[in-house]
Amino acid sequence: MEAVLDQFAIRAHNNGGFDGIAHQLTKGQEISSFSPVDARLIAKVTTATQADYQAIIQKAADAFLIWRTWPAPKRGDIIRQFAEALRAQKQMLGKLVSYEMGKSLVEGAGEVQEMIDICDFAVGLSRQLHGLTMHSERPSHRMYEQWHPLGVVGIITAFNFPVAVWSWNAMIALVAGNVTVWKPSEKTPLAAQACLQILSTVFKVNQVPAGVCNLVQGSGEIGQMMAADPAISLVSATGSTRMGMSVGQTVAARLGKCLLELGGNNAIIITQNANLDLALTGAVFGAVGTAGQRCTTTRRLIIHEAVYEQFVEKLKKAYEQLVIGNPLDPKVHVGPLIDQQAVLQYEAALVAIENQGGQILSKAGKLSGDGFESGCYVRPCIAAANSDLAIMQQETFAPILYVIKYKTLQEAIQIQNGVPQGLSSAIMTDNLKEAEQFLSVLGSDCGIANVNIGTSGAEIGGAFGGEKQTGGGRESGSDAWKAYMRRQTSTINYGDDLPLAQGIDFHLDGA
Description:
The chain is an alpha/beta fold and 511 residues long. It has 13 helices and 24 strands. It has two domains: 1-262 and 471-489, Aldehyde Dehydrogenase, Chain A, domain 1 (3-Layer(aba) Sandwich), CATH 3.40.605.10; 266-460, Aldehyde Dehydrogenase, Chain A, domain 2 (3-Layer(aba) Sandwich), CATH 3.40.309. The chain has helices at residues 2-13, 50-67, 72-101, 105-125, 164-175, 189-206, 220-228, 241-253, 276-288, 308-320, 340-355, 409-417, 432-439, and strands spanning 22-23, 30-34, 41-46, 133-135, 141-149, 152-156, 179-183, 213-215, 232-238, 257-261, 266-270, 298-304, 359-360, 365-366, 378-379, 381-384, 400-406, 421-422, 424-428, 448-451, 463-464, 467-468, 475-476, 485-493. Strands 13-16-17-12-11-19-20 form a seven-stranded mixed sheet, sandwiched between helices. It has a six-stranded parallel sheet with strand order 1-8-7-6-9-10, sandwiched between helices. Helix 1 packs across helix 6, helix 4 packs parallel to helix 5 (164-175) and helix 7 (220-228) packs parallel to helix 8.
């Protein structure tokens, strides 16, 4: 771990910017990054003052005037080189992500792989930023649409995916011709520094203008400035529903664009026709991966009454086998929560479950003793609940899994949809009719609906996002690139007359 910290921490202390990348001067206060693994101080990172922020925004705006003129395939080649640099640094960066955030080592490496994957996607996209052609109702006219970059794209990311979500936005935004300003979570500042340190080596070789990518470390005040700033054409924000509502209202007040990826309260329906072994794997990984701190974490299991007792027993046995501890140990399944505040929220949820009539079915609570000195380790737990348990309407960012019994598929879908959030969902069944009903207009109301896989682990090829209080935004694959560009419809008259649309006849005397 020392080699990893030595490599990436040096940039957290220096006074200058990265090569080809503008970031704040060292005038603001410092953020101390403590690992939830062992409470060790990893690094101190300087935050941006308001003056720093304004200087960076101006630098980004200036860089946009140049970057937008680079051909998209050339921009794509820069992203290709970044992917190669990430491949070379995958284990080092993945280990840093695991240590600073607390997710398991394989999940840390997997997050870097997501960055590589979205780079590969963006490279292909650089030659496919296509519009449409339309037939005109007027003779000797041609209509078509094209897409242009927006300008400065602001990216606000959360601690649970400290590098991947930035890349989902930044790689697509950059290849589309935009420049970016990134405010990472103040809980994982070093991982952000490391990403731009790697990117800077690519930018330097290719003489990319300073200001194409920018980093502003800081608290929520920086995010508020970004949301209110008319110089930022699009604000892409990932985090809680509460944060997203604040960002959305501020951006809307200036008629700006925003892309929101907010809370999830995801469920798996397990029918009487499910492969229970398959369902068990999907449910357990979905519930305990990243210690329950994914927006796509499985928080509810809606289980048919015919297999409820059998499946819950399998689930309890699986939970007894979970290894909790240092996420850098490959044998560990569950690492720590991000900080002790998250532990308090977990403990408060356990109290609420019992006060509201639920029942804790497995060992639960905060862990202490050797290996747990940071105070951030908890036991993933299972709770039996009725569908009207109030605490289930909330997203508790911790490994608490609710199990609910149902009789009919219609009832199960109603339970699943009966929460304010609408990100990810899944059904486990070998029955074709059940699968199709779940995917139909009468089924899941979520942005993601899976059959025979869990709620987490989305691939970058599909558009990622959800409905209702999840925000409605879409990132990553498919045609999500359109969110980072502006559409322009153009009509060309190649004739000698000027006929008007809708058959309007308009003549001037002497014309």
